[in-house]
Amino acid sequence: MRILITNDDGVHADGLWALAHVLEEFGTVKIVAPDRERSACGHAMTLREPLRVKSTVKSGFEVSEVNGVPVDCVNVGLSVAWPDGCDLVVSGINNGPNLGFDVTYSGTVAGAMEGTINGIKSIAVSMCVFADGAPFHFETGARWLRENLPWLLEKPLGDLSFWNINVPAIAWPEIQGHKFVGMGRRVYEDRVERRDDPWGRPYYWQGGVVVMRNELVGTDVWAVNKGFVSVTPVSLDWTDHPALSSLNQELVSNEKI
Ligand code: MN
Question: Strand 28-34 vs strand 2-6: parallel, antiparallel, or unpaired?
Fold first, then answer.
């Protein structure tokens, strides 16, 4: 199996290397990753400046460092690392959760989205660490993948869908198992903080405190809070199908009148 790994924490991130070492058990791994941290870049793409690629070999892996974001890495990777295509794109292991609406901001998830757009089976993997300075436990995420990747690859998904996996950042024996769940609602409070610079001019930090909506049973947020790995099939079809069909039904009934 030909595997392309990317991430948004940069090529030196521990999570990327934990992922590389577990995926090499399943096939040939090539790493194409940003040369620095690009978290929360969403599904951005570099258009107005050239992409530079530095190719090296590290720990036996072919590594391409790109001065771009995960979308750039997947596309450059399919040109440089796997010009004849590959069988799997895995993005991560991210050093933080990608739950609920986070998927729209996440560079990690964007890597899997871009793999999907290219017609390749894709997976985003993130460690849900909720306290500053707490250990990431990448080994837990890697072990979960080792044990579960075979069925993840086998399970049929829509051709616009990919897997979003979130692993609680706890030791392996504490993991309760996994749950198939939908996207939750991860809400931030005090999203923007105003401060003043030494000259009295205001500036703003965006971040905020997460308000976890645990009460929504059956969501990714709920699952990881209970100590389960959340497994969410996410579709790139953002159409609101019930709304669309109701609009078309209205159109038909208006025509009848
Ligand atoms: Mn990140």
Answer: parallel
Report CA dihedral (227, 233, 238, 241) to the nearest 10 degrees.
-110
Stated as kind and residue range, the H or E segment containing 67 is none
**Percent of the chain, pLDDT > 70?**
97
Cα(166) to ligand 1 centroid in Å equals: 13
At 22-39, the pLDDT tens digits run 999 999 999 999 999 999
> Residue 159 belongs to a domain with what CATH number?
3.40.1210.10
Residue 174 DSSP one-character state: G
CB environment 30-56: b (16+ within 10 A), e (fewer): bbbbbbebbbebbbeebeeeeeebeee
Measure 8 CA to ligand 1 centroid, in angstroms. Answer: 5
Cα(181) to centroid of ligand 1, in Å?
22
Tally Cβ neighbours within 10 Å of residue 67: 16
Alpha-carbon distance of 30 to 160, in angstroms, equals 24
- Block residue for tokens 């040939």: 28
Q: Which domain holds residue 226?
A: 2-256
Query: 16: CA distance to ligand 1 center in Å?
Result: 10
219 contacts 183 by C-beta, under 8 angstroms: yes
Q: Report how many domains make up the chain.
A: 1
What DSSP element (H or E) covers 251?
A: helix 241-256
What one-character DSSP code corresponds to residue 63? E
* CA 245 to ligand 1 centroid distance, Å: 37
**pLDDT(209) > 80:** no
